[in-house]
Amino acid sequence: MLHSSFFSQSCYLIFFFLITIAPLGTSCSTILSGISNDIIDQTCEKCANQSIILSYSLCSTSLQAIPVSHATNLQGLALIALELALQNATDTLSRIQVLLNSTDFDNFALACLKDCFQLYTDAAWTIAHSLGAFLSENYEITKTWTSGVMETAATCQEGFGEKKGGVSPLTKENYNLFQLCGIALCIIHMFTLAVPS
Fold first, then answer.
1. Which domain holds residue 187?
2. CATH of the domain at 65
3. For FRET with 6, which of 12, 79, 125, 168 sits at 20 to 30 Å CA-CA?
4. pLDDT by residue for the chain (197 residues), tens digit each?
5. In this structure, is residue 68 part of a structural domain?
6. Number of domains in the chain
């Protein structure tokens, strides 16, 4: 699928980016040996402790699933979290298209799904541009846009609740997008605190 291919290419971009920011004359093994093996656990624990809404389990499981995350730093983890959010958004767009073709929903639910489709279309665009902003070191813009995507997930979820007894078929997807963006924001915040001004 297109998003899987894009995600794989992005992992190569992240690895290339991390290698190119190392000081000249630094070997790859030196870079990797200086990185803590448990950076994912430490980072996810800090994020979960700093915010009652962030899940340590989802953070750890999501980041651990990406092989390059085991040999990176905070900057790399932030990129990976944003990539995971983008993958979630594109996967959810595909799921919404399937649901819109289903006969299982009434007119209200279909209207909500159409709203969510537009919200997720905008979210995917925003996350893609947030990645570009992050790579350009526009961290404040990245944080603002990523916060906006968290609101997108909440808006999609809340739309179904406007009708008594309404249940969202996208609860898991909305939760995951909200969490992944929150994790990305937390890591970006941690990273920018460590960057000299």
1. 36-194
2. 1.20.140.40
3. 168
4. 333 333 333 333 333 333 333 333 333 333 343 344 489 999 999 999 998 999 999 999 999 999 888 888 999 999 999 999 999 999 999 999 999 999 999 999 999 999 999 999 999 999 999 999 999 999 999 999 999 999 999 999 999 999 998 899 999 999 999 999 999 999 999 999 876 65
5. yes
6. 1
Token look-up 């902003």 returns 133
Smallest Cα–Cα separation from 17: which of 81, 76, 86?
A: 76
Quick check: is 13 in a domain?
Answer: no
Please give the angle made by the CA atoms of 57, 59 and 61, to the nearest 5 degrees: 65
pTM confidence score: 0.80
In a domain, 173, yes or no: yes
Determine whether 15 is exposed, middle or buried from the number of CB atoms within 10 Å of its CB (0-12, 13-18, 19+). Answer: middle
Cα separation, 136 vs 96, whole angstroms: 32
